[in-house]
Amino acid sequence: MKNENKKFFYWNRLVCLLTALMMLTAIALHKNGTLLGETPQNLLMGTSVEGHGGDTDTLIIMPNGTMIVNTTMLASEVYGFAGPVPLRISIKDNIIEKIETGENSETADFLAAATSKIFPHYIGQNIEDALNIQVDAATGATYSSGAINENMRRGLTFAQAHISDMPIEIDAPESSPHSFGLKEIIAIIVILSGAILPIWLKGKGFRWLQLVLNILVLGCWCGTFISYSLLIGYLSNGIRLSVAVVTLLLLVVALLFPLFGKSRHYCMWLCPLGSAQELIFRLIPRSIKISPNTLRWLSYLRWGLWSILMLLMWTGIWFEWMDYELFSIFIFQQASWIVIVMSIAFAILSAFVSRPYCRFLCPTGCLLQTLEDKKIEAQM
């Protein structure tokens, strides 16, 4: 065992990582029909998705004169949190009548929060007035909001040019909808702190500080965490660095650190949900002793549930369970009532049992633990 711990690189864990990525790739293709923004046919033939019509037709004129602008091609490089957020904008007599979202990989609750705040500002407006509207981002759904506003701008610019029979020129925005600012800088500092400093700092004081920073910065302020929705979205649509620098750092810790012997480093040192559970347990130390036999059966149940959820996705029966992972509780305004109720239950349980969601349920945690080359016990 000592010799194994001295290994610099674990090749068998690399095989586990590649296997996990292949599993997720199959699910991403089944769910969204694309890989890194392209269909399998396009990847094999070396052609771009822009050559396709149908659902990607930019302009459709209905018999009653309604003009429907589809922004799929107009804003193909404009990303929300997990990928493009195309819109279908219905315009009649120069008035915006209806706005719908196209296929996307955004978390349903976050996207609903963004659309419910943004769409009402545009509906009923004429094109000229709508182009001058500036709508603030929905709380906790900044990336989705930025993508929606930019899709609206490009779609309305296209419609205006079509109506006036002028050449269509869609200028790039003066500033990126996903500007890199103070929030991202602080988040990167917190991630680097949790990724690197534990190698040298072992004191409880540092542990307390890192837990609090994970909760306040990564969780409540940035809403940044690793989840199935995020991973599937990235595999389906690709990654834009302007949006995903912070998340990519988390992925490096979660996926690559185990290859160098740092097992579960993301879960134990950076995950805001795990940090919140541990902090509650530390503040209210009323622990319940769980027998090894019970822990073993709880571990079996956890892995059994994870296997069922993976099967449901592979068969295409139920992808929506990904929207109910508890990480979205940190963006409280957009969390569903199911997530809120479950989060409260596990918060109460955390006062008696250390990290109950992590140890007995978390599907993302199970996925990350498949990168291990040895059996992971329920006790953490």
Tell me what you see in this structure.
The protein has helices at residues 2-5, 11-32, 40-45, 108-122, 127-131, 142-164, 182-196, 204-221, 228-237, 241-256, 265-269, 272-283, 292-314, 337-350, 356-360, 363-369; strands at 59-61, 67-70, 87-92, 95-101. It has a 4-stranded antiparallel β-sheet with strand order 1-2-3-4. The longest helix is centred in the middle third of the chain and has 23 residues, at 142-164. α8 packs across α12. The protein has 2 domains: 2-33 and 180-369, no CATH class; 53-164, Sufe protein. Chain: A. It is mainly alpha-helical and 380 residues long. It is built from 16 helices and 4 strands.
Structural class: mainly alpha
Shape category: elongated
What number of structural domains do the residues give? 2
Over all CA atoms, what is the radius of gyration?
23 Å
Average pLDDT works out at 83
Number of helices: 16
